[in-house]
Design a protein that fits this description.
Elements (H helix, E strand, L loop, with lengths): L1 H20 L12 H10 L1 E4 L5 H15 L6 E3 H4 L16 E5 L1 H4 L1 H7 L2 H10 L5 E4 L5 E5 L7 E4 L12 E7 L10 E3 L24 H7 L3 E2 L7 E5 L4 E3 L8 E10 L16 E2 L4
Antiparallel strand pairs: 1-10, 2-3, 3-5, 4-12, 4-13, 5-12, 6-11, 7-10, 7-12, 8-9, 8-11
Bound molecules: 2-oxoglutaric acid.
The site of 2-oxoglutaric acid has 7 residues, from β5 and β11.
Length: 284
């Protein structure tokens, strides 16, 4: 019995080491410079190049690959969103193409550790008016999977449209796990669009920006199309208009996306935003 326990402990210790070796656990805590903070305030988004190490990216890619083959739910499928280019029903070819693996935080302690790391707590607090940040489990909390052939186009929208918080002051962070380019459907954003207000005729009934309206066409002249490398992180405000194309390449595009809010910005009770409690970031 004693021997069995000893071997079990050794196995667990080894497993723990293997589990943690892909993620840098003690990184120097670094916040944004004043210039980066101003850039975020002005544009409503900011790219932090090489934020995650190649070991971290490799670990998250491996977790993702094993959740895709076979598919481990919960997942959202392209057919569920019905965006342009998505298969129309499950029975169609590509009908089971995942669009995102949901509940990323519950999938691995390594993902949780990474997403709640002290540096992210500091950075997110800086971009939400210096308030203590909390990590939301209800939005986005996913690994986006953009597949060749069956992925859809995402029209211009603000993420906050379906979220219910006391104040529309949430910030998402998007980690590229591979190259993201126009060809495989990378994010495009409209700088400064989070600071504007919009009249009813500028948005359709699903709150997408109407591209045939003159005011919107002027906004669309400012579009920035991102090109990301593995490990790059994009911070974007929940009111920044963004869109993305379909994946026209032969390989799947993977990105991990989470959302944070100020601890004193509560979700409205009994909404999609209040189902699971938000998590605290680790202290450095
Ligand atoms: O990668 C995409 O298609 C865009 C995803 C997005 O903007 C969203 O889900 O809010």
């Amino acid at each position: 019995m004693g021997n069995k326990l000893f071997f079990l402990r050794c196995w667990l210790a080894l497993f723990g080491w293997v589990e943690s070796k892909g993620v840098v656990l003690s990184k120097e805590v670094q916040g944004l410079s004043d210039q980066q903070q101003q850039q975020f305030e002005q544009d409503g988004f900011l790219v932090l190049r090489a934020f995650a190490s190649s070991a971290e990216v490799a670990t998250f890619k491996q977790i993702t690959e094993s959740a895709l083959h076979p598919l481990v739910g919960p997942a959202e499928f392209e057919v569920d969103v019905r965006y342009p280019g998505a298969p129309l029903c499950r029975e169609d070819e590509g009908g089971y193409t995942p669009r995102r693996l949901l509940h990323a935080l519950a999938r691995s302690s390594l993902i949780r550790q990474w997403a709640t790391q002290p540096s992210l707590g500091v950075i997110l607090s800086q971009v939400i008016q210096g308030k203590e940040a909390r990590l939301c489990q209800n939005h986005h909390n996913c690994i986006m999977t953009k597949y060749p052939r069956f992925s859809s186009k995402t029209h211009w929208h603000q993420d906050v449209r379906y979220w219910s918080f006391e104040r529309p002051e949430l910030v998402s962070f998007w980690l590229a796990l591979g190259e993201e380019t126009k060809q495989n459907g990378a994010l495009m954003l409209i700088p400064g669009s989070h600071r504007l207000s919009y009249k009813d005729h500028q948005l359709d009934d699903m709150k997408f920006l109407c591209t045939n309206v003159a005011e919107n066409q002027r906004l669309l002249e400012r579009v920035v199309a991102l090109s990301l490398s593995p490990g790059d992180l994009v911070l974007f405000h929940c009111q920044t208009f963004h869109a993305a194309g379909a994946n026209e390449t032969d390989s799947v595009k993977l990105s991990m996306v989470f959302t944070a809010h100020a601890a004193d910005n509560h979700p409205r009770p009994n909404t999609r935003s209040s189902v699971y409690p938000s998590l605290a970031f680790q202290v450095g």
